[in-house]
Amino acid sequence: MSDAAEMDVAIFTVLDDPALQALLPDGVYWGQASQGTIPKTKFVIVAQTHHEDQYEFQDEAFERFIYQITARAKESTSVTVDTAAARIRVLMAGLTTATGYEVAAVQRIERIKYPDPDPSDPATLWQHAGGLYEILAQPTIP
Amino acid sequence: MARRHGKNGKVMMDPTGSTTVVEVASLNAWTLDASSANVDVTAYSDTNLQYVKGLPDYKGTVGGWWDASDTAFFDAAFAQTAVMLELIPSTLDATAKFSGLGYVDASINCPADGAVSISGNWVAAGNWTYTPGV
After folding, report:
1. Nearest CA-CA partner of B58 in B88, B22, B103
2. What is the signed CA dihedral for A20, A25, A29, A35, rounded to 10 degrees?
3. Of the partner residues B8, B114, B115, the one whose CB lies closest to the CB of residue A57
4. What predicted TM-score, i.e. pTM, was given to this entire model?
5. What value does the mean pLDDT take over residues A90-119?
6. Which of these, B31, B125, B27, B28, lies nearest to B84 by C-alpha position?
7. What is the pLDDT of residues B46-91, one digit of tens each?
């Protein structure tokens, strides 16, 4: 049976991109970026916000995933995250394969952009930009 | 026999109208409506409408996902002849089925934000039978 976690892997694979890393050098993270000893200030967060199975008789026909993928940067302007969000959109359009699935469609269905004050220093802003991405895929492993 | 989930339903069809039916791929729904064409025979002094039962008007729908490799559904719809249909509520009770000749219509829905789906109506083109599972 196809493993939905393979879609997560496929997303991280396409986001492993030098141009995106140049903009957001602290990496791509699932759900949250652990700050650790060296604070991260420019990174990408990937999270799954919705998933549903669509059936045919005897079998699963499609899986529909929705991921929220946002560029985040601790800076006063949105220039970096805007550029990164545009790069993420290009990279996601190139997501055509995932182990155990035939990818039928990948498309952004909602744009995300907002600033957020740093909890420990309200005078400092975090910039967020990206989108909700819908993936429709046909499982290929019974 | 137990109550069943529809996930194990099945639609079988022979486009030639004979009895060599094969499964139609990628379908996920079917309906059958056997409502009778009842006739109103209400008379003076009756206190409510009264009917005599007419013949069941077998008809229904089928639906599913479009599969480029399976042309049987549209072949049946475009043909001018009746096809043999077997509508099976659950393969767990494989002998339970509704079957008979039918004329099939088809439509296809291709949305920009979803999967391509197909649907269609069917009406009886011969006598239909219900074969109970037990």
Report:
1. B103
2. -160
3. B8
4. 0.84
5. 96
6. B125
7. 999 999 999 999 999 999 999 999 888 999 999 889 999 999 999 9
Mutate to test the interface with A, among B65, B92, B109 (most CBs of A within 10 A): B65
> Are A57 and B113 a contacting pair at CB < 8 A?
no
- Cα A56 off chain centre by: 29
- Check residue B35 and report its DSSP letter: -
Is A5-30+41-139 a domain of CATH 3.40.50.300? no
pLDDT of residue B1: 62
Region B6-128: CATH code: 2.40.30.200
Find out whether A58 and B8 touch, Cβ atoms under 8 Å.
yes
Show me where the domains of chain A are located.
5-30+41-139
Looking at per-residue confidence, does A132 or A141 come out higher? A132
